[in-house]
Amino acid sequence: MQEIILKENERIEEIQFAKLKLIQNPKGFCYGIDAVLLAKFCKAKNGYRAVDLGTGSGIIPLLLCHSAKFCEIIGIEIQNEVADMAKRSVRLNQLEDVIRILNIDLKDSCNYLEMNAFDMVLSNPPYMAKDEGLQNLGNIKAVSRHEIKTSLEDVISSAKALLKPHGHFYMVHRPHRLVDILCICRKHRLEPKEIQFVHPKKNKKPNILLLHCTKYGKAELKFREPLYVYEDSGAYTKEILDIYGK
Amino acid sequence: MQEIILKENERIEEIQFAKLKLIQNPKGFCYGIDAVLLAKFCKAKNGYRAVDLGTGSGIIPLLLCHSAKFCEIIGIEIQNEVADMAKRSVRLNQLEDVIRILNIDLKDSCNYLEMNAFDMVLSNPPYMAKDEGLQNLGNIKAVSRHEIKTSLEDVISSAKALLKPHGHFYMVHRPHRLVDILCICRKHRLEPKEIQFVHPKKNKKPNILLLHCTKYGKAELKFREPLYVYEDSGAYTKEILDIYGK
Fold first, then answer.
1. Residue of chain B whose alpha carbon sits nearest to that of A179
2. ipTM metric
3. All domains of chain B, ordered by start, with CATH?
4. Do B182 and A179 touch (CB under 8 A)?
5. Of A159, A176, B6, B170, which has fewest CB within 10 angstroms of its CB?
6. Which residues of B touch A175 (CB under 8 A)?
7. Nearest partner of A172 among A63, A37, A29, judged by Cα
8. pLDDT 10s digit of each residue in chain B, 246 long?
9. pTM for the complete prediction?
């Protein structure tokens, strides 16, 4: 096995349920439940070619390899240090044959990748509009959280360009952006087909939105049953424990 | 008190929690929980001028009179027999000073009512697209359920025309039309501000959507806590019993 170099502040985290090892930098933006929920929400199939727009630590491509035998998965990440970390995580898991990390701006994806060619595009993009809340524009966490280097429309239009006709787009986002998300998806002919809301508890407002669109799909939206993260007691719900394989 | 004539098949139903009497025709389309939820979802204020687009039996204007002292409430209903029934219900409750029922097509509202003048427009419109499921085009129930005489866009554009700037639009609809609803509202500058989903039970998909928009509002969507109609036991939830004043 190759030697994997860990840089300052980095550590290796074992993701038991997917039998994966992931390099994380706790001073940067660490993956959260959102990425795990998105990987579980999407329908992965053997032989698929997929792209993850804004892959961060590479968690989504790594989790996808756990659920099907993909032909290839491209993870696109604009931040140099973060892309480098994702590449090392791919090597650590010996998945270089399937996963390729590209350190490019997702707006340029079509200059590097084949258009109208992928079965599936996923994204866990920055959630907050550029002007939402305080931010330090140069900071790695800020770029992962705010639409500084990329906008919702960049993500959606890139996904559209990369997907085959009838290909699948899966995104995790925040419910307060729902109107923008649905209107921009429809504008780019990624028709919303399935929505699932995730609530912290059953009597709380949803705080995570999972969306499935198909390119050139007909208008026919379905809802999945809501997902609750915690019981009233504070324990994880059975659904969440199932997702984490516990 | 005036004599109120009941026609064939009609009966008077007492709505205990609002101390109202409503004429209903069980062979036509009877009001359901949706109208009650919409009346409860909206924020009624004393002195408001309101319009209910597609008022049916007049249930929404009648319920609104229970929650605030409106200056006036106009109920618009295209079907002659239904509008006539609503007028008689208004008289039965001696609310002719506040509620006026107009037997017109809502697309013509601006020929009969002042534009840019109302504080609140509500609608519990037909839910199903013209081609969704079987229908008898001439039937009273079909007109109440399907977009035969009116479309979602007619309702939304009429609401926009009637409302004052920053006026409130409240609609109850089905979740599977969410994309159409949000895109058409935004197109007509009725910006979605609040959404509440109603689920039959806590682990079921939502089957009712409550929406609040403001005319020319800024993009800032909030969710209300979800509403569940039944407990797992089949009993009504506390929230629903509260709405029905039980």
1. B182
2. 0.91
3. 11-243 (3.40.50.150)
4. yes
5. B6
6. 221, 223
7. A37
8. 567 889 988 999 888 888 899 999 888 777 789 999 999 999 999 999 999 999 999 999 999 999 999 999 999 999 999 999 999 999 999 999 999 999 999 999 999 999 999 999 999 998 777 767 655 666 777 777 777 778 999 999 999 999 999 999 999 999 999 999 999 999 999 999 999 999 999 999 999 999 999 999 999 999 999 999 999 999 999 999 999 887
9. 0.93
